Amino acid sequence: MTAKKIMIIDNEEGLCHMMEAVLMDDGHAVRSFTDPLAAVETFRPGTWDLVISDIKMPGIDGLEVLQRIKAVDPKIPVIMITAFATVEMSIQALRHGAYDMLTKPFEPDELLFRVRNALDHNQLLSENQLLRQELAGKFNFDNIIGASGSLQKLLDKVEKVAIRDTSVLITGESGTGKELIAQAIHYNSPRRDGRFIAINCGAIPESVLESELFGHKKGAFTGATSDRDGLLKAADGGTLFLDEIGNLPLNVQKTLLRFLQEREFLRVGETEPTQVDARLISATNSDLADEVDRGTFREDFYYRLNVINLHMPPLRERRPDIPLLAAHFISQQNKEFGTGVKGLSPEAQQAACSFSWPGNIRQLKNVIEACMTIETEERITLETLSQFIEVEGSGSSEADYNDALARFEIDYLQQLIRAANGNIEEAAQKAGMNMATIYRKMKKHGLKREDVI
I need a surface site. Which of 40, 142, 219, 378 has the fewest CB within 10 A? Predict the structure, then answer.
């Protein structure tokens, strides 16, 4: 464990010396105070990693010390020591923010155990805070790539929507970046410290979708061997993103409608409602209004979802953004694989800007990755690019593109599975896909894990 700075406050000088010796032998920097008032006056936020304080002391007692320290640095863990531990005293200390209670007399090993737990807990809290800050930065509006007028107009709307806790429906073709917008809304909203949970409604079998979303009670159906919370409960305090919501069966739409109206729902097999505070953001690449007319989507549910509509423009309507996005994806690949590709050649860039990109941003990203896999020049050439998209006058066809992309996909899957030693879950995490997608692509190309590794 990295050395931490620990403050000890106890009017018993001998006990201070004992704790000092034990903690310094464990590699920590320790300073003891027998005068609690002097300790409190010395304490500064960010200077200490842990405080250990006795409760019964002359001058000011340990509970007052605890309150004063927590007022200055609310996040610092404090361990309270007492020779007269009672339930009431322990509750009072914990209510005032104490991390743990240590009863005298105690062995050095017990002291070290409590100290390590407190420091590990604080380290975890710090890492979670850094992760939240990193995610908030990653999904900051400034980090959504593009300068086209249509995108900037959309982002202006997203910024206003983020702070208002209302339902949002994001529409647009497949591959336009709908989930990225949903993440931007979450991480720039008051719910940013809660979880962002995404689910693709079209990737989960209808038979288990209701249980996945809402959870179930033990014995609700064959195989329900224990109570289970669903994804909606897991998103409590945060945001649940439902991608391809047009695939939801009508019975699930009914339950979600009740949640949007009452903020509660019934788990499968349960009669008492579960209350959850979660924001719902949904997305679709289909026309839900048409599905309402056909009777495959509830009209009341549609209007509840579509309080705010954000439409993602296709990439062909954002042509000025294509060079920026290509440069971004090239930079990502360079960082990941240690390569030094400088960008697209002028001819390749012109061809990329002229192409219609039916698969939108996702297709552009995959094509850039494929080009960089085989490119030998310092820039991606037109010759390389034409192997993956149809370039005017190149003689390439859509069939050529599909064949090239299939070859790339097979090679990429094989590399992923080998790098993960056949662990499909790990391979999916590395690729940023779910396991179902990996298995579907393996089946599509006739790949077997045992043959790859």
Answer: 142
DSSP of 34-62: S-HHHHHHH--TTT-SEEEEESS-SSS-H
Dist CA 88 CA 95 (whole Å):
11
d(CA 6, CA 15) in angstroms, rounded, equals 15
Structural domains of the chain, with CATH: 5-134 (3.40.50.2300), 140-313 (3.40.50.300), 322-452 (1.10.8.60)
Taking residue 290's Cβ as centre, other Cβ atoms within 10 Å add up to 11
- Show the tokens assigned to 182: 């949903």
154 neighbors 313 (Cβ within 8 angstroms): yes
Count CB-CB contacts under 10 A for residue 127. 10
pLDDT in tens, 275-324: 899 999 999 999 999 999 999 999 999 999 999 999 999 999 988 889 88
- Stated pTM of the model: 0.58
Main-chain dihedrals φ then ψ at residue 305, nearest 5 degrees: -75, -40
Classify the phi-psi angles of 395: left when phi > 0, otherwise alpha if psi is within -120 to 50, otherwise beta: left
Sorted by sequence, the CB contacts under 8 Å of residue 101 that are 6+ apart come out as: 79, 80, 81, 82, 85, 90, 93, 94
